[in-house]
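In the previous chapter we treated chains in isolation. Here, by contrast, the input contains four separate entities that must be folded as one system, with a combined length of 690 residues.
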Amino acid sequence: MNLKELAKHLNLSQTTVSRALNGYPEVNKATRLRVEAAAREFNYMPNARAKGLATGRSMSIGHVIPTSAKREMVNPVFGDFITGASEAYVEAGYDLVLTLVEDGDEERLYRNIRDKGNVDGIIVHSPRMQDSRIALLSDLGLPFVVHGRASDITSDYSWVDMNSRRAFERATAFLTELGHRRIALVNGLEHMDFAYRRRKGYLSALAAQGIGPDATLMRAGEMTELLGHKSARDMLAGPDPPTAFLTSSMVTAIGVRRAIQEAGLQMGRDVSVITHDDELAYLKNGQDVPLFTATRSSVRAAGRCAADFLLQMIAKPSGGPLHSLLEAELILGNSTGPAPRPGGG
Amino acid sequence: MNLKELAKHLNLSQTTVSRALNGYPEVNKATRLRVEAAAREFNYMPNARAKGLATGRSMSIGHVIPTSAKREMVNPVFGDFITGASEAYVEAGYDLVLTLVEDGDEERLYRNIRDKGNVDGIIVHSPRMQDSRIALLSDLGLPFVVHGRASDITSDYSWVDMNSRRAFERATAFLTELGHRRIALVNGLEHMDFAYRRRKGYLSALAAQGIGPDATLMRAGEMTELLGHKSARDMLAGPDPPTAFLTSSMVTAIGVRRAIQEAGLQMGRDVSVITHDDELAYLKNGQDVPLFTATRSSVRAAGRCAADFLLQMIAKPSGGPLHSLLEAELILGNSTGPAPRPGGG
DNA sequence: AGGTGAATTTAAAGCGCTTTGGAAACCCGT
DNA sequence: ACGGGTTTCCAAAGCGCTTTAAATTCACCT
């Protein structure tokens, strides 16, 4: 059933039916009700393509997520992020179109997305440090919100981000207060902006205690369980092993924990661990007592916020860029304790 | 730049330009080249909505994923599944539109998706046991492929599934061959079809050894780390604890491992663990030596296959339903060993 | 009855593309 | 030079909706 048929059946013009269904004021209350009833009865649903063509809006939002070229891995936080974003889309009647893109041909891709016109705005995932996409998108004139920020980009754009720097600064300071001096960092890939910020926070907290950077205590890579395990195993086997680890994700922390246990040590007593916790649905950090001491910030909430921003920008293009910096909270679990005395135990 | 402008600039009709760009034969080679060059130069990209309206096809595929009402969690395998599916879509020029839906108002949703007409086919995720969606979709006449199957549905439909039953049968048999008799199952939610099949495989392998089902050794729930941990902790504290665990996901297995360690036991010696491994990119099962003995089947490959099927069905609607049953391989890790002798150790 | 302005409805154009049904141009042999 | 068959191109209709501009109806007053 399309509009024409519905109109014919009602003995009305398409115009009136269309207006009745879209809530325009200039239609008689009685006919509006009649139209709505008929629409329900015949399960009428306007064709999205035709509607889009006529209105110039597609009622959908693009999420472009880079898959790191080699491993082609989708960041596992993605599921939770879109769960949050979806809430907003459902409420506003928007669809979500997903595009995975390999690093490289992005310029062309974004331009095509704009010209194809099948999205009204896009969410940019996983920004890198000097991310060229931001300038590009600003030029294209397509509304966009970045999940994260890109350092070294001076122009103003909309973003939703967690305060990575402060989170890792606090976490590191927490460890130094416990007496730790040899603190390792197992980070995400450091061309990713968030990872860069986390390291900055880590280093600045160390510096505040007069502790210089130690390359042997810093690792970065895709945030897998294996990365955590391998990094921790190597470091713990070294000559002057760390007494504490800071990791960028729960999965990595689990790998670190495994290495600690394999080394015959006990997490929280011999070696402390703090991780960042995105509050992923399938990887909750313990139940009552958190498994790991962690900096916690819901990625799902970030998704919701980013989507809200974008919808707002689409509805009111005149408004300026929107920003939200989410603060992580430091939650105490069993994975941290005072630094063991050197030579002690 | 739209078609009309491009045509005017070339002194050609829209018809010819359109045909040139879409590879129709009735256009002079020279003009075709000229058109293509101009299209490149001006970065022309046809408007997807208009094209869709004209052709009746939207060039996009819908993925409908149910979010379990309470926890609103997106199955973590989803990221890898769409990574696989995306490959196919990119090659074929399709977009991927994502719809999260809460259990309940699905009937309306699917009908709307069809009538809105913004997808040419859909992939159905997480089928439940007697999943009403299948009959509904068959009625709607929208091509669809199910990731998984739905028991008790007699009609023929397209699906891609892993042979859950056989995988868990083999895994269980492997454990009984090692002498285990008290084997626990930590399953996914058992109204999900795959979980039901896994339990069937588990039970049938036990039955083959004359071992009856023991309710105290069977748990089911969302496949989180916590589920694994809690289930294993409880069971290990029981009067006649299991000597082996079978789990439905790596994350759950990690929880089981944690409980084993907390109980002062050693995985692979005191307690064996076999898990199903979906080969998720961020949760690889070890590097050279697998962490866990596992039934392994790539969910990414499943995604690729499902997408291929669907595209094939769209291209050739006359063809019958397509099926693919993927066999999991049993890989040996360090998490399994002979059953400890009762009273021994 | 006639006139006025507001309320309600409509016909038709237009969104940007594809595609049908011709028309024009070209080629060739006679 | 002309007919017939290919090539090559084009004008216009149509996809299903919104929206502009205009027509109709209605309510009310003189």
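The mean pLDDT of chain A is 93. Residues 225 and 255 of chain A are 4 Å apart (CA to CA). Compare these points with the single-chain example from earlier in the chapter.
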